[in-house]
Amino acid sequence: MRILCYIPMLEGQTGEVQQWLAGVRKSYGVIPVMLPAVAWNDDLTPWPAGPIFKKGKSFAGEAEAYLSRLAAEIIPGLEKELEIVPEERWFVGVSLAGLFGVWSAARMRLFTRVAAISGSFWYPAFTDWLPRQTVTAKQVYLSLGDKEPQSKNPHLKQIGIQTEAVRSILQAKGIPTTFEWTEGSHFAPIIPRLNKALAALADSFRCNGHICQSTTYTT
Question: Which pLDDT band, with edges at 50, 70 and 90, does 125 fall under?
């Protein structure tokens, strides 16, 4: 399979994730590609929004510009360097990157399959915006840690409801979508969550886009 799986650099998780990346091709038959570091609150957010914590940063909403750079410059450059014309491109994003992955599937046909781990679907107006869009992904996988709705933050405590809303919206559009609760908090522990996401995408590819019985992969 000539499949490239794009993963934005994870803040504070680079060492652990780099070790995991070394075994991804053998385990799932895909080639992982780490995207260069981004301005998390700016490049991955679809429109401007205020901070959700008292001393937090605002969100610049520059995802449109970042997606354009990905499509026109970053991804073509990486694929030229790898000397690969992919059969499919996958995107696995965590937190705001998960939000970006689903949002990008409604903006252009760049990624065939998308996984959002602890996706930031609390983002203001996102679940109002999504139903009006055409989504091009063949499959979407969503996951949350079971402790995430216990947050005291009024935005974050609704994440289970908002993620379920995203699942329902995508399924209503005919997009095969799974939503899985896993043990843990916001994208932690990260490696088991990444493994579940990759396994789900690989299973769907193997079954021609349909959600089917899971295969056991080496990890």
Answer: very high
Closest by CA to 93, choosing from 156, 149, 13, is: 13
Q: Residues 164-182: pLDDT tens digits?
A: 999 999 999 999 999 999 9
Query: Which residue's structure tokens are 């794009």?
Result: 6
3-class secondary-structure state, position 213 = coil
In the chain the domains, ranked by start, together with CATH numbers, are 3-206 (3.40.50.1820)
Task: Evaluate whether 30 touches 4 at the Cβ level (below 8 Å).
Answer: yes
**pLDDT single digits (tens) 48-67:** 999 988 888 999 999 999 99
Radius of gyration of the chain (CA): 16
Where does the chain have alpha helices with state H? 14-21, 24-28, 40-43, 63-69, 75-82, 96-105, 126-129, 159-172, 190-206
The answer to whether the beta carbons of residues 151 and 191 sit under 8 Å apart is no
User: Other CB atoms closer than 10 Å to residue 123's CB: what's the count?
Assistant: 23
b/e 63-94 (16+ beta carbons within 10 angstroms → b): beebbeebeeebbeebeeeeeeebebbbbbbb
